[in-house]
Amino acid sequence: MRRTWTIIGVADVAGSFSWYQALFGQPATLPAHDYFGQILDTDGTVLLCLHAWGAHEHPSLTSPRGGTPGNGLLLFFRLDDFDAALQRARALVTRLEEEPSVNPATRTREFSIRDPDGYYVTVSALPAA
After folding, report:
1. For 66-90, what is each residue's pLDDT tens digit?
2. CA dihedral 106, 129, 111, 69 (to 10 degrees)
3. Spacing of C-alpha 91 from chain mean position
C-alpha cells in the first residue's frame, strides 16, 4: 500500500489542528510541533498534514502571499459519519460553501466548507460496506 501525505500551509498549526479534529469528530490532542502537525485516523493513517507558513525553506510554503491559499486544491474527505460531520461543520463555520446534496458522479451525499485558512473542504459520505 502506498499513501500520500497532503501538506497544507496554515497560519496557526494548533488552531487548524483543533479545527480539523473537531470536523472529524476526533478527541482533542496537540500537534507534535508548533510548526507541524499530522491529523491521523484511528489506525494511524495520515489524513492531513498542517505546516506553518515560512517555518522551513520549502519553496511552496514560504508565505501565503505567493498565491491564494487553496487555489487549485480541493481537500476531499470521505467520512463514515456524514450526518454527525455535517452537524460538527455547522458548528465550525458561519455558512456552508455548498449545502448537502447528492453528487451525481459518486452518488454520495456531500457538502463543502472553508477551513480557517480559506481552503475549500468537501466532506463526502462513505457508503456502508
Report:
1. 777 667 788 999 999 999 999 999 9
2. -80
3. 15
pLDDT digits (tens, 9 = 90+) for 23-62: 999 999 999 999 999 999 999 999 999 999 888 777 777 7
- Whether 13 and 19 have beta carbons less than 8 Å apart is answered as no
Element (H, E) at 13: helix 13-24
Global confidence as pTM: 0.88
Owner of C-alpha cell 481552503 = 119
Phi and psi at 35, nearest 5°, equal -110, -5
Distance CA 102, CA 120 (A): 18
Residue 124 C-alpha cell reads as 463526502
Within 10 Å of residue 116's Cβ, how many Cβ atoms? 15
* CA–centroid distance for 83 within its chain: 17
**Distance between CA 91 and CA 86 in Å, rounded?**
9
